[in-house]
Design a protein that fits this description.
Distance between the termini: 65 Å
Number of helices: 21
Helix content: 25-40%
Number of strands: 19
CATH class of one domain: Alpha Beta
Shape: globular
Strand order of the largest sheet: 2-1-3-4-5-6
Largest sheet: 6 strands, mixed
Structural class: alpha/beta
């Protein structure tokens, strides 16, 4: 046992507000694992919500574990200490259930590392009857759980509030492992991978069959009444992302339906929390932090957003939002952001040209984008962050040229205002390659080849490098290729993930397994081909096909 690790955990617990370790006596024990570092995990509102839901059950104990920091990882290996939970410093193998919360596909890479540190075989088929059950949930699993299906006994397809109570009833009964899994498979939203068989032919899934009376389709479930339980920060710590704010969820999903965006489809129907409920949480949150972080995919579309922001300011707080819709940005909202100390505001045109914005159903004109920038600049906000996607289906260099021209026009406005006010202003471009996501109209579209994306990135770098007051941030196309591979892959990727963990690099893992990632992610999939995630019931396939045809002007 490493006392360095124990002391670090004690320091973390001492600095936290809201974590209450529980006695284990006779209770179902759950270790909630976020496959990333503590700083990232505890800034995730979904992770905190599940932690609170589990600990709200009197006969359940939920503790936490995380991917160790690099120096801590070295200490684990040097001392041969098994991966420990934060609250009681117990090995993960001591728990009844290990539950992974996974928001992003790239974190799949860390799951084999966590198994290795815990001394638990990564594949469910290789574990003994006495090993903990292993479960996973989170947004990445809503989309496509297949790349990690062979690791898991249970997978949650949907939101935690309606899934956890009936599932916990099954788990608390106990019994033989096979009996528990068979009964759990009847719980809406629970997928038991061992009760399904996939058949492949090259890159294609040609059959997906349920076994032993398991449901043919797994239903995605969602919480119908968000106001039943507020979703807010549960644990506050000075050592995490967003440490200076109290997070409050306003809504789930997005009513816009942009054709590339998963959030607009997997969280349907779009739901909002009542404003009086949120106001009460604001007042409680301001007792903990001076800044309120509003969380949701469509903050600007929340009914009463202006009233809510005024309420926060009237109670002496400040407002924080990640980004805002260009066509929902009015003078009052900008003024409240300015009062809250925002020096930078993020906008998301996404498509660089009008043709591409129409293709992805963004419903924004260049005039609207420029008008929003003008309103921000007029209020003295001279730092603008603009989100763009490159590599969208049918994109040409003409579309990139239009993107550059739009940036130049925005830059001119910023520079002119900055000169008048004798201040500096900056335009930051955050450029991300397009990744096809399950349950979107573009799920059948291939990602653009890495070399082509790198060439486009260089073109943008050359064009913007000549412009003062403009800075380009671009996600690596190679890293995006991994995200696309895990986003649309099947359960055969489990061996690749294990090998990547052993070698410390996904690229080395791909080479060792003879995996041609470019070939798999760049392939356009025929509309009539069976998709790895087609066993999930909850996507309106007819709507997706209809939107696909509308995007490309087809019947």
């Amino acid at each position: 046992m490493s006392w360095k690790i124990i002391e670090k955990y004690r320091r973390i617990l001492a600095a936290e507000t809201g974590a209450v370790p529980k006695n284990w006596g006779g209770k179902l024990t759950v270790c909630l694992v976020y496959p990333n570092r503590y700083r990232v995990a505890m800034g995730n509102l979904g992770f905190q919500t599940v932690y609170a839901l589990l600990n709200a059950c009197p006969d359940v104990v939920c503790e936490r574990a995380f991917l160790p920091d690099p120096e801590e990882l070295a200490e684990y290996r040097k001392s041969r200490t098994p991966l420990l939970s934060l609250e009681s410093q117990r090995p993960l193998a001591d728990f009844d259930l290990i539950a992974f919360s996974v928001s992003f596909e790239s974190d799949y890479l860390h799951i084999p590392t966590i198994f290795a540190l815990a001394g638990i075989p990564p594949l469910a088929a290789g574990r003994s009857a006495s090993a903990p059950l292993v479960m996973a949930g989170g947004a990445a699993l809503f989309l496509n759980p297949e790349p990690v299906a062979d690791f898991m006994d249970l997978i949650c397809i949907g939101e935690g509030e309606p899934i956890l109570p009936p599932l916990l009833d099954v788990l608390k009964k106990g019994g033989e492992r096979g009996e528990i899994l068979a009964e759990a498979a009847s719980v809406p939203g629970i997928y038991v991978p061992s009760l399904y068989e996939a058949v492949y032919d090259g890159a294609r899934t040609v059959a997906f069959r349920s076994l032993d009376n398991a449901p043919a389709k797994v239903q995605r479930v969602w919480e119908r009444e968000l106001d039943r339980r507020p979703t807010t920060s549960v644990i506050l710590s000075p050592d995490v992302e967003f440490s200076d704010m109290f997070l409050i969820e306003l809504s789930r999903g997005c009513p816009r339906g942009c054709r590339f965006c998963a959030a607009g489809f997997i969280y349907l129907p779009y739901r909002q929390r009542g404003i009086e409920t949120v106001k009460a949480e604001v007042e409680r949150g301001l007792g903990e932090r001076g800044r309120i972080g509003l969380v949701g995919a469509a903050i600007s579309d929340y009914r009463g957003i202006g009233e809510l922001c005024r309420h926060i300011l009237q109670f002496g707080g400040k407002v924080s939002v990640s980004s805002l819709r260009v066509d929902a940005l009015d003078g009052e909202m900008i003024e409240m952001l300015k009062e809250s100390g925002h020096k930078t505001v993020a906008l998301a045109p996404e498509g660089g040209s009008q043709r591409l914005r129409d293709l992805i159903k963004k419903d924004l004109s260049e005039e609207q984008i420029l008008a929003a920038c003008d309103r921000l600049i007029a209020k003295g906000i001279l730092n603008l962050k603009l989100y763009f996607i490159i590599g969208l289906p049918t994109e040409t260099e003409a579309d990139l040229e239009e993107l550059i021209a739009l940036v130049q026009r925005i830059r001119e406005r910023v520079i002119e205002a900055a000169r008048k006010e004798r201040r500096l202003g900056e335009v930051v471009l955050s450029v991300n390659p397009f990744v096809p996501k399950p349950f979107t109209p573009f799920q059948w579209c291939g990602m653009e080849a890495v070399k082509s994306l790198e060439r486009k990135g260089k073109l943008l770098q050359q064009a913007t490098g000549r412009l003062s007051n403009v800075r380009l941030l671009m996600e690596s196309p190679k890293d995006t290729c991994l995200q696309a591979l895990l986003s649309r892959g099947d359960r055969r990727l489990s061996a690749f993930l294990v090998k990547s963990g052993e070698l410390g690099s996904w690229r080395k893992g791909a080479r060792a397994m003879g995996l041609d990632a470019d070939l798999l992610v760049c392939r356009d999939i025929p509309l009539d081909e069976l998709l790895p995630w087609d066993f999930i019931e909850g996507g309106d396939r007819e709507r997706l096909v209809r939107e696909y045809h509308k995007a490309f002007g087809e019947r």
